[in-house]
UniProtKB/TrEMBL annotation:
This is FMN dependent NADH:quinone oxidoreductase. It catalyses: N,N-dimethyl-1,4-phenylenediamine + anthranilate + 2 NAD(+) = 2-(4-dimethylaminophenyl)diazenylbenzoate + 2 NADH + 2 H(+); 2 a quinone + NADH + H(+) = 2 a 1,4-benzosemiquinone + NAD(+). Its EC number is 1.6.5.-, 1.7.1.17. GO terms for molecular function: oxidoreductase activity. Its cofactor is FMN. It comes from Methylocaldum szegediense. It is an enzyme of class 1 (oxidoreductase). Also exhibits azoreductase activity. Catalyzes the reductive cleavage of the azo bond in aromatic azo compounds to the corresponding amines. Quinone reductase that provides resistance to thiol-specific stress caused by electrophilic quinones. Binds 1 FMN per subunit. Belongs to the azoreductase type 1 family. Keywords: Flavoprotein, FMN, NAD, Oxidoreductase. Residues 3-194 form the Flavodoxin-like fold domain. Homodimer.
Length: 212
């Protein structure tokens, strides 16, 4: 059984990126009804941004933490446990002011923990969150893929790779604010790409045949 962790970050439940995640999970369930689906809706239930309490708590021995530090570390530990338990990570990412939602950045900051999800060595940093497949569902009002305005793709590849997740596929739905025809075309193309990627994973995972 595969565990899928879906992260929703649209401000609205009906936001474009959330709808892409819903479509992805619907198609996934149709092919893998036995799989376990975990959900984090950061738009509906945002997690706090890092602050001094959380940071000092990370580097304070457990027995010396204040109640506030313990609470902050427990939240980070919970988010990391969800990520570590997942075989597949699905990120729904709208573009807000040319960047990722601040709620997603907060999630990243909570799961990027030295000594737990990455470590520094004499040969450089090593990601410890490995053997996962990541799908990034990127929804944009304009068309930015392949341009300098697309700050999301490089950042997410870098930070996910830093944590050890290098098998990352991006699915773009762009031009969603450029009229109904453009929106329909973009969504249809994205749904088709989702279907092909899921079908491809159904046949092979990390180069190894799987039961289907």
């Amino acid at each position: 059984m595969t565990t899928v962790l879906q992260i929703k970050t649209s401000l609205s439940d009906t936001g474009n990126a959330n709808r892409l995640v819903d479509a992805f999970i619907t198609q996934w369930r149709a092919r893998h009804p036995e799989d376990r689906i975990l959900t984090r809706n950061l738009g509906r239930n945002p997690i706090p941004h890092l602050n001094e309490t959380a940071i000092t708590g990370f580097f304070t021995p457990a027995e010396r933490r204040t109640p506030e530090q313990r609470a902050a570390v427990e939240l980070s530990d919970e988010l990391i446990a969800e990520l570590q338990a997942a075989d597949v990570l699905v990120l729904g990412v709208p573009m807000y002011n040319f960047g990722i939602p601040s709620t997603l950045k907060a999630w990243i900051d909570h799961v990027a923990r030295a000594g737990i999800t990455f470590k520094y060595t004499e040969n450089g940093p090593v990601g410890l969150v490995q053997d996962k497949q990541v799908f990034v569902l990127a929804a944009r009002g304009g068309i930015y893929s392949g341009t300098p305005q697309d700050t999301q793709t490089a950042y997410l590849r870098n930070v996910l790779g830093f944590l050890g997740m290098t098998d990352v596929s991006f699915i773009y739905a762009e031009g969603l604010a450029l009229g109904e025809l453009a929106k329909d075309r973009a969504e249809t193309a994205a749904l088709g790409q989702i279907s092909r990627l899921i079908d491809s994973r159904t046949i092979t995972t990390a180069g190894k045949p799987v039961d289907v």
